[in-house]
Design brief:
There is one protein chain. This protein has four domains: 85 residues, Glucose permease domain IIB (Gyrase A, domain 2); 167 residues, no CATH class; 160 residues; 146 residues, Glucose Permease (Domain IIA) (Distorted Sandwich). The chain has an eight-stranded antiparallel beta sheet with strand order 15-11-12-13-17-9-8-19, with no helix packed on it. It has a four-stranded antiparallel beta sheet with strand order 1-2-4-3. A three-stranded antiparallel beta sheet has the order 7-20-18, with no helix packed on it. The relative contact order is 0.07. It is built from 20 helices and 20 strands. The radius of gyration is 26 Å and the shape is globular. With 611 residues, the protein is α+β, with helices and mostly antiparallel strands. It is found in: Cell membrane.
Length: 611
């Protein structure tokens, strides 16, 4: 199948060009915003050649492609996938009801398109570091030219962010870049460097250097998106061509210099204080946490939301610990696990694991994550444990990264700096991650001969039928809007969109655990199988409000016994998904058969576990 046919398939299964509200990409993913989300055909898209997996993160739909994402993106553009990208400003809508999630989605949407630029600068710094190791002096013209080539991508970052933010907030991209030009204008920089007080019509202008900054320009463009909407309403149609751009510039630019820019700089400085405090007092914490949980962040593409803090650290300290050390540990762990699976798996699957492992060791982990880690039970746990331990070593020894690049063996030179021990400890971190992940995976992950699924199926457990845990509509596990469940990382099962708020036991057994908030119940069936019932998504944040429990740990239960009551209307009013998810832990997809029935009542058959 040629690239043209692949593009047509992708466009078809996302609902056609008219359904594509926006399209952009990062290093490994195509990222869509769609008008009608129901037209995103997950199963069909997974079968398209080159598509590793699909992810939904907030309002964004992602196709994980890998290293060839540029080719896919450019061909989609040739087929009109971006024809709706230029649209009238709506003022940068922001969901105040779910502000933290909205902020993260906003940061990811803004940073993802400019990641290639940031990595390009980082990779030139890798080349520069190698040249220095080969004997190039830092007083030579070759060094100076390579240095400003690499630094340009960071210094002029407000320009790139202005363009990306304008697209995100649906305002004029070129006007946004013009405002960035004001903040970086040489004459303004001269005023800042002079040390004298700066005033504009007797209003104080704070002397701030905006080169390499992130937060100020995002705030400025966000404000401008609302201003543009306002100007659009009040300016007569015949004068819009002249007055609209003039008003946007003459209002936004002074406010950017006097109020918004300094506010953004203050917010950045606050984050700087937090980062510095962590680095000074608990330097092992961030690399350990990142080494452990990076795969989960990558699953939903939310690791990109940390890029602004990474850049802030680089601009303030000249190095960063927010992502680099921990991602090095995690990425190499992914590669080690994939290579261990390659050694154990059957011949025809070995090549896939080898390729994914080598790619992960080079810093790109999606092929390993979706092609290996999530397909073989216990592998994710091995990766996370190895990443945490290697990250802990990196934190204890003070490993830092001097430039942005996908952390892996090929980019180890970004850890070369003033401290000669830094690169040595970075190499040791990578070796710990590789050896530990390979060893743990090889020992604890079992692979069936002649099958790509995991072979630690519980053969000693009888087949078992689950009855309905709630009245309502059955949906496949893949449609659950929580990657931890929909990916099958915990095991397989299905979900119910409940019409009534009573949750019942699906089996004979006992309560193994019940979460204090009542939103999750663990059951151990009489056959020894572990079952998780999770009521709603993110409902732990309700802190038990709306939930009433009728069992406790150790309670003996039978099919149809009442476990929990949940106030569905209360959950919905607070903005949470009410899906009731039922998972048989440590099962593969082949182990579970979902009973095909649209509407379930009490005691209806729901799932069958097949050994």
């Amino acid at each position: 199948m040629d690239q043209k046919d692949i593009s047509n398939l992708i466009i078809k299964h996302v609902g056609g060009t008219d359904n594509i509200k926006d399209l952009y990409h990062c290093m490994t993913r195509l990222r869509f915003k769609l008008n009608d989300k129901t037209k995103f055909d997950v199963e069909a898209l997974k079968k398209v050649p080159g598509v590793i997996n699909t992810v939904q993160a907030g309002d964004e739909f992602q196709l994980i492609i890998g290293a060839e994402v540029d080719k896919y993106y450019n061909d989609l553009l040739r087929h009109g996938a971006d024809k709706n990208a230029e649209r009238k400003s709506t003022g940068g809508k922001f969901d105040l009801k779910n502000a933290p999630k909205a902020v993260l989605n906003m940061l990811v949407g803004i940073m993802a398109p400019i990641i290639p630029i940031i990595i390009a600068g980082g990779m030139v710094k890798v080349v520069l570091a190698l040249c220095v190791l080969s004997g190039m002096g830092n007083d030579t013209q070759n060094y100076k030219i390579l240095s400003f080539i690499s630094d340009a991508t960071f210094y002029f970052l407000p320009f790139y962010i202005a363009n990306s933010a304008a697209k995100k907030f649906e305002t004029n991209q070129f006007m946004a870049m013009a405002i960035a030009g004001v903040l970086l204008h040489p004459n303004f920089l001269d005023l800042v460097a002079s040390g004298n007080n700066i005033e504009f019509f007797n209003l104080p202008v704070k002397a701030v250097k905006y080169g390499s900054s992130v937060v100020p320009i995002i705030l400025v463009v966000w404000f401008m998106s609302y201003l543009e909407r306002f100007v659009e309403k009040i300016v007569p149609q015949v004068l819009k061509t002249m007055l609209r751009p003039m008003l946007l510039l003459i209002i936004t630019a002074p406010l950017a210099l006097i109020v918004i820019g300094p506010l953004g700089a203050y917010m950045g400085s606050s984050v700087y204080v937090v980062i510095k405090g962590i680095n000074d007092n608990v330097p092992w914490l961030v690399p350990t946490v990142m080494g452990c949980f990076a795969p989960l962040l990558v699953m939903v593409g939310m690791h990109l939301s940390l890029v602004p803090f990474e850049i802030l650290s680089l601009s303030q300290f000249g190095y960063e610990t927010v992502m680099g050390p921990g991602m090095l540990a995690s990425n190499i762990s992914q590669g080690g696990a994939a290579l261990a699976i390659a050694l154990k798996d059957k011949k025809e699957k070995r090549q896939v694991a080898i390729s994914a492992g080598i790619t992960a060791l080079s810093g790109i982990t999606e092929p390993a994550l979706y092609g290996v880690t999530l397909k073989y039970k216990r592998t994710l746990a091995c990766v996370m444990v190895s990443g945490a331990i290697a990250g802990l070593y990196a934190g204890i020894t003070g490993v830092v990264r001097y430039a942005v690049a996908s952390s892996g063996f090929l980019t180890l030179p970004v850890f070369i700096g003033a401290n000669p021990r830094n690169i040595i400890n970075a190499v040791i971190t990578a070796v710990i991650a590789l050896v530990l992940s390979f060893t743990l995976t090889y020992i604890f992950v079992k692979v069936e001969k002649g099958s790509e699924s995991v072979a630690d199926k519980k053969a000693d457990k009888a087949s078992e039928t689950f009855t309905s845990v709630a009245c309502g509509k059955v949906i496949p596990l893949e449609e659950v809007k929580d990657e931890a469940f929909s990916s099958g990382a915990l095991g397989y099962g299905a979900a119910i969109i409940p019409t009534k708020g009573t949750i019942y036991s699906p089996v004979e057994g006992k309560i193994g655990s019940i979460y204090p908030t009542g939103h999750a119940v663990g059951i151990i069936s009489n056959s020894g199988r572990e079952i998780l019932i999770h009521i709603g998504i993110d409902t732990v944040k309700l802190e038990g409000k709306g939930f009433t429990t009728y069992v406790k740990e150790g309670t003996i239960i039978h099919p149809g016994d009442r476990l929990v009551d949940v106030d569905l209307e209360f959950v919905k009013e607070n903005g949470y998904d009410t899906s009731v998810i039922v998972v048989a832990l440590s099962t593969s997809k082949e182990d579970v058969k979902v009973v095909e029935k649209d509407e379930l009542s009490t005691n209806d058959e729901f799932l069958q576990i097949i050994n």
